[in-house]
Amino acid sequence: MSTVGSTQGLDDPLRRGKRITAWYTLSAVLFVVVGVFAIIEPGVAGIGVTVLVGWLLIFGGIAHLFAAFKGGGAGRVILQVLMGLIYVIGGIYFLVHPLLAIGTLTLVLAAVILAVGVVEIVSYFRLRAEGASGWLLFNGLLGVLLGGMIWFHWPSSSVWAIGILVGTSLLVTGVTRLMVGLAARRLLGEAMR
């Protein structure tokens, strides 16, 4: 009677896993490169985000217009058509006037960051007895500080805010994915031995 090794028959899936983690690692490196570029050139990155949002609004508007033809009563059809038109008009505005649109996006971003910061500070006071509630307070204060800084320096903050924030997010996402991908490759390498 022969004994079977614990990894026998798993060789092909392990090799596939190595290929998948290689692509995952490559995508992580691309996230890091794009994130660094966005931080170095925040104005260009901000305009890129504005153009992307414009196209997303147009596609969303088209989806609402298609949804209007599915019926459901006159009120639903009218609402879908109105929402579709608003989305398409907003998207066209973002594409035709990206510099003005980036100012609008920056103001909305500042309001969202401020609101989230306030909610986290309130959450801290409600969860003070919990172990990691200090992080809520820290994150909330940081959010209020950052949101306030963007808000009070608006419209001049429009030049840097979106690009820096998107770039930082892409950079952190890329580094995180890179670490996860490298750890997965290491584990797969150990399993193949």
Structure overview:
By secondary structure, the chain is mostly helical. The protein has one domain (14-185). The chain contains six helices and no strands. Helix 1 (11-40) packs antiparallel against helix 6 and helix 2 (42-68) packs antiparallel against helix 3 (74-96). 21% of the residues are buried.
Secondary-structure blueprint:
Layout: H1 11-40, H2 42-68, H3 74-96, H4 98-126, H5 133-152, H6 161-192
Strand content: under 5%
The domain tally reads 1
First-to-last CA distance: 23 Å
Q: What do the pLDDT scores average to?
A: 80
Unreliable residue stretches: none
H-E string:
HHHHHH
In short:
This protein is mostly helical and 193 residues long. The chain has one domain (14-185).
Provide keyphrases for this structure.
6 helices, mainly alpha, 83% helix, 193 residues, extended, single chain
